Amino acid sequence: MNPHPSIEAQDRPARLTVGVVGAGRVGPALAASLQLAGHRPVAVSGVSDASVRRAADLLPGVPLVPPAEVLARADLVLLTVPDDALADLVHGLAETGAVRPGQLLVHTSGRFGTAVLEPATRAGALPLALHPAMTFTGTSVDVQRLAGCAFGVTAPEELRMAAEALVIEMGGEPEWIAESARPLYHAALAIGANYLVTLVAQAMELLTKAGVRAPDRMLGPLLGAALDNALRSGDAALTGPVARGDAGTVAAHVAELRKHAPQAVAGYLAMARTTADRALTHGLLKPELAAELLDVLAGPAPDGGAAGPAASSGGQAPTDPPSGTEGAPEPEGEAEDERDRDRDRPEGAEGAEGAEGAEGSEGSTGADHPDRSVDTDPASGPTRSESAGPESAGPRPTRPDSPDSASPDLGPHGGDA
Q: Taking every annotated instance into account, which residue ranges of this chain make up the domain Putative oxidoreductase/dehydrogenase Rossmann-like (predicted)?
């Protein structure tokens, strides 16, 4: 529930005209939310068919114009493009004189603070970084989800109150993030949201192979309870064979995965090692049970070689082929993920016109967002390096009886949040 009471839009005049550059999943939703707060969307830019549809659905009657024209019409401009396109877009807008002094320029990237807006700031713009920690669908439901949504806010001190006020007007909760902490903040959201989608989709695939007819219904209550417990209690909420030190059960898991889903072995081992490390650090896993468990987790890699560092002395083992998507539902969106902003990507810094000249692919954060719609097939993803073997996912925890176990921090993952 948003503790800040809203004011009916009709009870106050529109105070700012609002423009959107990049009609992905995030931009139109934020503009629609600002409209409910009394501001007035006046222009939006977007090229792909999906962008045009989103703009028409969420901002009916608002004209689609080139990016430079958006800036010419709006007091507040939302730059909702992919992270990798943002710097070139800002540079192009500044170089072509599209930026006006006193204009509020807001980007929604989780990765960047306001430094990426420096070219526009030099031209007189007022820079704000407002990143909604939410997954977006590109539909009207996103506007409702902003109620109570946390926003990572970075701004010059003199604009802090203005930035926080805009977030509150959209129904969100501002959370101040220092400029230097933005990459770490965004990485945390990617771990918590983007990779959660991968784990859940993989779990559903494995349940389907095990004969479960409705894996989503089986996982729903379990995942809901696990998430709630983790948010309430942190590591103390951990359950399962690793926390109990059930080495035989973990060994059986690995054997079955090698047989039925070899592509899942590397991820399972990496997560199990991290889980064992945290369980040891927090006193959940008894040291006398840990040695046998860690031996299992240091077992042979999927190609039959050793999984530990010794195996990589003559070269890293090849990765397993990526898992398929059979039975996995199409994701709604991603928080801290680069697929929620529209990939109407600028071609370079030649000018603002580049922001509408290059078509991207249509794609949920995220992380995100946590954040911008990508015009790609949601089922596709980045390919993994052929040289990255299972061990690349992370080192094994230190065995309690090893010479390295004198420190209570049992491995590089110990104590990480």
A: 5-132
Question: What's the DSSP call for residue 113?
Answer: -
Any idea which residue has 């989503």 for tokens? 216
137 touches 4 (CB < 8 A): no
User: For 213, which DSSP code?
Assistant: S
Terminal Cα-to-Cα distance of the chain (whole angstroms): 26
Residues 6+ away with beta carbon under 8 Å from 260: 206, 209
At residue 207, the pLDDT reads 98
Predicted confidence at residue 120, as pLDDT, reads: 98
Cα–Cα dist 340/145, whole Å: 15
Nearest by Cα to 336 from 151, 170, 89: 151
Tell whether pTM > 0.70.
Answer: yes
* Edge-to-edge strand ranges of the sheet holding 17-21: 40-45, 17-21, 76-79, 104-107, 126-132, 150-154, 173-176
Q: Do residues 47 and 70 touch, judged by C-beta distance below 8 A?
A: no
| CA gap 111, 338 in Å, rounded | 10
Q: Which residue has the tokens 């599209």?
A: 98
Q: Tell me what pLDDT residue 15 has.
A: 87
With CA atoms as reference, report the closest residue to 169 among 63, 353, 12: 12
Placement of tokens 């990143």 in the chain: 131
Q: Identify the segments of the chain with pLDDT beneath 50.
A: 1-14, 304-417
Among 88, 78, 98, 90, which residue's Cα sits nearest to residue 26?
78
Beta strands at 126-132 and 150-154: parallel, antiparallel or unpaired: antiparallel
